[in-house]
Amino acid sequence: MKLKDLLLFDLIIGLLTSFKHIFRKKFTVPYPYKKLNPAPRFRGFFYLNPSTCLGCNMCWKACPIDIIYIESHDEQTPEGKRKKVVDRFDIDLQRCMFCGLCEASCPNGSFKLTLKTGFYEGAVYDRRELWWDRYKLQNYVKEKKEKKNG
Amino acid sequence: MNILFLYVIIPAIKGIVILSIVLFLVAYATYIERRVLAFMQARLGPNLAGPQGILQPIADGVKLLAKEDIIPSSSQKFLHFLAPILILVPALVIFGLVPFGDASNLFGLLKNPITLYITDVNVAILLVVGFASLGVYGLILGGWSSNSKYSFIGALRSAAQVVSYEVPQVIAIASVLLLSSSLSLVKIVEAQKEMGLWFIFPGFLAFFIYLVCGIAETNRLPFDLPEAESELVAGYHTEYSGMKFAFFFMGEYANMIVVSSVATVLFLGGWLPPFPSLKIWHSLPQIPVFWFFAKVLLFLFIYIWLRATFPRYRFDQLMDLAWKWLLPLSILNLVLVAFIKWGIK
Question: ipTM value of the model?
């Protein structure tokens, strides 16, 4: 056994290391009081603008677990064209795995169905609240964000 | 009347005051531990109950009082009830012997100065060591009466560990007794005052041995094998809940404070300031128990510091350390101190 080992140098170095950590920046984020901003590509909760939804059913086809429910009917526009009007657009968020395939398949430009809202505080007391219809899809995230900003 | 006042009422008041201070310290030792440990691990620790989480011990106490007291159906009911008491009470009894401070009139509140300890027994250190080792019965009974394998293994380990580490600890204490030529804790502090030097300076080796053995006897990391979470769930108190668990918890922390207080008295000069012969201390304001509690808190900090740094020993390493290293070292130290004492004379 060496003298260095007998004088317990390793232990003292360890003690000094842990002492230094007292003054280090803490990693803990005290969550409800301080929040981290999610990354730009973070998949949060849904947003859909039903007035720009084409009712094309692409998201319904893309969904691997069939949790999107769409019903629509045809209407004549004044120009005599046929237009689909969405009556029902429901997503069962209880089962959603946030894969984003619906978002990727949506053809309708900037107003499309999106998950990139950055909103993640969707916990609810009753699981039936996780059945989102088209009004909730349009308003829920917006309202929550407005509430948060005062 | 006078005798009643001197021997019953004053000690009773002192006892109540010391008990409340000690229990307060026990409660806040948990808070300090969680907080310091968290800081050393780059976390925040409890910080929500009150400013900086200062009310956390009270919240914990209320929670534990309200918890259900679960008694395992196949346990020995009476011993199961007795064990938590047996671990806490001996630890609290020791505070009747610890000198917290010199005679003081408490900033002029009293006409005649009173001594800031309950008794000055002439064999105090023997009583302290005896009561400290009584605590292990609580662990063994708690582990055995629960009728659970984890508790039982924890209790066996604790018994082996405490018995092993008591030997070098007492020999380390004996070297202090050689230096002070007294068994009374008050006289030991006074001997350090006469010497003008804390006993840690001539007896650093003894202090080191006492520190290691004290940590092992209170079953704290890195020697917490009796309650090794990864192997034994919680060790001897696996089957306890509610206030009984709280008693075990308080017993552990009270024992830590006992070891800290005794180390303060034996090695760090009790209520004396550093280098007590210096003239500078006379010009500064005298706060009666300031130095004592400062040293106890420092010692508690060392406990937490060691816990944050070192991993747990293996059981054979633990026994190796006690019998192959600390015991010969303490005997060597005792012989050295005896020679130094003889040389001085």
Answer: 0.73
pLDDT in tens, B175-217: 888 888 888 888 888 888 888 788 887 778 888 899 988 888 8
Burial B62-81 (b: 16+ CB within 10 A, else e): eebeeeeeeebeebeeeebe
Tokens of residue B175, six digits: 């070297």
Which tokens is B113 given? 């100065």
Which residue in A12, A18, A29, A34 has the most chain B C-beta atoms within 10 A of its own C-beta, making it the best mutation to test that interface?
Answer: A18
Task: Report d(CA B40, CA A16) in Å as an integer.
Answer: 11
Domain boundaries of chain B, sorted by first residue? 76-344
- CA dist A87 → A69, A75, A115, B25 (Å): 10, 12, 22, 67
| Cα gap B174→B216, rounded to integer Å | 19
Cβ of A15 within 8 Å of Cβ of B44? The answer is no
User: How far does B255 lie from chain A, in Å, by closest CA?
Assistant: 23
**Residues 6+ positions from A28 with CB-CB distance below 8 Å:** B42, B43, B44
Look up residue B117 and give its DSSP letter: S
Q: For the segment A3-19, what is each residue's pLDDT rounded down to a tens digit?
A: 777 777 888 888 898 88
Whose CA is closest to B246, among B59, B48, B39, B53?
Answer: B59
Please give the Cα distance from B19 to B13 (Å, whole number): 10
